[in-house]
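User: My instructor asked us to take a sequence, write out its structure as C-alpha cells, and then describe one feature of it. I'm not sure where to start. Here is the sequence I was given:
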Amino acid sequence: MSQQVRVRFAPSPTGALHIGGVRTALYNYLFARQNDGVFVLRIEDTDQTRYVAGAEDYIYESLEWLGLIPDESPKVGGNYGPYRQSERKDLYRQYVDQLIEQGHAYYAFDTDQELEAMRERLKAAKAKNLSYNAITRRQMKNSLTLDAQAVQELMDAGTPYVVRIKMPLKEEIRFQDRVFDWVKAHSSTLDDKVLLKSDGMPTYHLANVVDDYLMKITHVIRGKEWLPSSYLHVLLYEYLGWGEQRPEFVHLPLILKPSGEGKLSKRDAQEYGVPVFPLEYHDPKSKEILTGFREEGYFSEGLINFLAFLGWNPGTEQEIFSLKQLVSDFSLDRIGKSDPVFPVDKAKWYNQQYLKEMEDSRILAMMKSRAQHQGISLPDWEDAKFTALVDLMKDRITFPGDILEEASYVFQAPESYDEKTLKKKWNEVSSAFVKDLKDTFAKDEGAWEAEHIKHLLQDLIEKQELKFGKVMAGVRLAVTGLGGGPDLMVVMELIGKEETLARMEKALSELNK
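Assistant: Let's start with the prediction itself. The C-alpha cells for your sequence are:
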C-alpha cells in the first residue's frame, strides 16, 4: 500500500461511549497497527445542543483502559488538527461557498412552521416521501425559487438560513464498500440534507467529509447505520473535486441485543444483565448511573477479545487472542455482513478464561475495588493472605468481585447451614468426628497451615477407621455452612485457628439441638 494508512474514530461527546462504538474504535486501531498506519481520534461536536460536559474525558478514559491509544487526538495533538470539529468551524465555510458557487448547494430560508406545513401537505396527498428533496424544494423558500435580489434582501435582514445540498433528480449513486461490495441508491430517494446549520456550524455530513479529506483519511471504518448517508458523502467528494482521493468505505454490521431483535441499546443492560458501556457513566441529565464493563469486573483484554469476534472471524477454531495477535491476524476481508447477536454468556466466558491466567495481584485489586464500590468491609489482612484467597477461588469464579459472595464464609461465620447437606450428612458419626477434630486442633501446637491441618485430619480419620467421604461434608458444613467449596484446609488456614474452633463449637451447639 503506497499511501500510509490513516483511519479515524470519530465519536460525538453526547454521553457514554456505547460498546458498539468501542468495537468500531478497535477495528480502526487493529487495521492501523497492522499496516503501520495512524489511528486518529476526532471529536465530532458540531451539534452543540447535544454536547454533554465530561463526555469527551469519558471517551479518553475508555480508550486508555482498553489500550486503544490514538496517535493523534485533541489530547496529544498532531499535524492535522484541530481534532475537535467545533474548533474547525471557520474552515468549513469555504467549502460551503464552493458548493453554492458551483450549483451543488443552495440557501434555504424556511421556518420550522413552514417545514411542518410542507410535511402536512405531503401527508394529505399521501406522498411516500415527506422529505425536502428535488421535488418539494420547488415550493419552498430557498435560493432556487427566489431571485437573487430577494435572497440578498433576506440575508441582509439577518433572516436565519441553512445551506442544503442540491441532490440531483435522476442519478444513480454507487460505490464499492469493503464489506457490502457494490451498493447503490437512486438520487430520487434521497433528500436535500442540510450541510450548514443556521448557527453556522456544519452538519456531520459536510464536516466529516471535509475533515476526512484534510486529515488524509484512507479508510472510513464505521457502523453500517451510516451506510445510507454514504451516498451523500460520495456526492460531496465528487462535487468538491476530491473523488480520486475518496477513502475506502468499510461499514460494519450492527450489534444486536441478546434476543436478536433490534440494535443493542443502553436499556438492554438492565433487561439482560450485561453492561453496554466500557466504564460506569453518571448521566448528568437523567442522574442515572449506568454500569460499565470495568466496574462489573471485566478485564480489558478479555473484552477486546470478545468484541473482535462481534463481526470478524479469523477463519480458524482459535478463540483466545491477545491484542498483539489480533493486530497480526485481523483482516477487513473477514468481517461478515450479518449482524451479530450480543452473546452475554460468551462475554462472561471470555472473562473467565482471562481470569484463570491473570496475576493474583490484579484480581485482588479488582476485588477490593468492587468491595469498595458495593460498600463491603473487608478484614484487615495482609495482602499475602488475600492473595492466597484469590488463588483458592480463581478457578471457581467469573469476575474478581464474585469472591465477595462465593467466599463470604471466609470473611464471616455462617449464619445458617445448607439444608440438603444437613439432612444427608449431619449425623451422630459426623457430629462426633467434628467434636473430636475440634479437640485435636485445640490441643495441637503445630503451625496452623493447610498441610499440617490436613495431616491432623487424616490421622484422626485413620485412627477412628472412618472413610474420608463419611465425615468431610460434616466438617465443611460446620466451618463454612455449605456442602461444597474449595480446599477446606486452605479455608481453615485463612480464617485462623481460633475462628475455626469457634465455628465448630457453634455448629455442634446449634445442629445437635
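For the description part of your assignment, you could build on this observation: The longest strand covers residues 172-177. Try explaining in your own words what that tells you about the chain.
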